[in-house]
Design brief:
The chain is α+β, with helices and mostly antiparallel strands. 47% of the residues lie in helices and 23% in strands. The strands form two sheets. Strands 1, 2, 5, 6, 7, 8, 9, 10 and 11 form a nine-stranded mixed beta sheet that branches. The radius of gyration is 20 Å and the shape is globular.
Length: 292
């Protein structure tokens, strides 16, 4: 099943909308235009692929940009809003529908479910999203959706070493620990501009601070603070390329209290200054002037 949203359109999806002939099915939603909104009042797992503009996922306050892909957990009262002239594609389904779809593609697995994550949307994924949006026949839509799912599964397979590094006697226990850590990591990625401490993050994962820091480091190879700084620098780099904010304002918007600290960390990370990176981005956007 597929839905299309245009400028300012609003779509409400309920449990009845996601069930066809008493069997759960995956649903494709194609949003195109300013302010188009999707509201979900039933827990739905989603793959979200923005193709242009920004996509605000309000269930967990994520903001996605082109070149990114988000996998979200089943949450009630979830809302997606296109910002600006956004174009995006979502593949949605109940947990039961995803178990069926993943099991059909990968065969019997220990846990046929997607993990909440932020992935890079490469050319193949974006092309698959466009194919889902443009497919006219049901067979074409299903084939395009299967290609997207297969690609996302290959991306999620990269979590295997991190899951194996988590504490637990069984794979199911280790995966559950990783899921809790992944929720915290996704929160940091979406709220890197906020000032959060390890105690707050540990409570989100239902751990003591010391246990949380050890488990996070074992799974991801870096501390929560190091990951937070890396996300702030990535956010600052995006702002430098796309916003008119002054560099000091970019530093503050990214969560850095000191411009000096921001400048030092930025240069260590990218090997150039924030001003130089902005100048290069501005030159690339400017039309070339031909001299006769």
């Amino acid at each position: 099943m597929r839905y299309r949203l245009a400028d300012g359109a609003r779509l409400e999806l309920c449990a009845k909308s996601l069930v066809v002939n008493r069997t759960s099915a995956l649903t494709v939603v194609h949003g195109g235009g300013r302010g188009c909104t999707l509201n979900l009042d039933v827990p739905v797992v989603g793959i979200w692929i923005p193709l242009r503009g920004r996509l605000q996922l309000c269930g967990n306050d994520m903001l996605s940009h082109p070149g990114e892909l988000r996998v979200t957990e089943a949450e009630r009262n979830f809302r997606a809003v296109g910002r600006g002239s956004a174009v995006w594609v979502a593949l949605l389904g109940t947990p039961q529908a995803w178990r069926h779809a993943i099991g059909r593609l990968s065969g019997p697995t220990m846990s046929p479910a997607l993990l909440p994550a932020h992935h890079e949307a490469d050319f193949e994924l974006r092309r698959g999203a466009v194919a889902m949006a443009r497919a006219e026949a049901r067979a074409g839509l299903e084939a395009a959706a299967e290609r997207v799912i297969d690609r996302v599964l290959s991306l999620q397979a990269r979590f295997a070493p991190a899951i194996a590094s988590c504490p637990g006697r069984t794979y199911a226990q280790r995966r559950q620990v990783f899921l809790r850590l992944q929720r915290v990591r996704n929160y940091l990625a979406s709220n890197c501009h906020l000032d959060v401490d390890n105690g707050t993050l540990a409570r989100m994962a239902n751990y003591s601070p010391s246990h949380f820091i050890r488990a996070f480091g074992a799974a991801y190879g870096e501390t929560p603070h190091a990951y937070l700084i890396r996300q702030r620098l990535e956010y600052a780099r995006r702002l430098l390329r796309t916003s008119p904010l002054a560099i000091s304002e970019v530093a503050m918007a990214s969560g850095f209290e000191s411009r000096c600290t921001f400048s030092r960390l930025f240069r260590e990370r990218y090997g150039t200054t924030a001003g130089a990176m902005r100048a290069v981005a501005s030159a690339l956007r400017s039309p070339q002037v031909q001299v006769a």
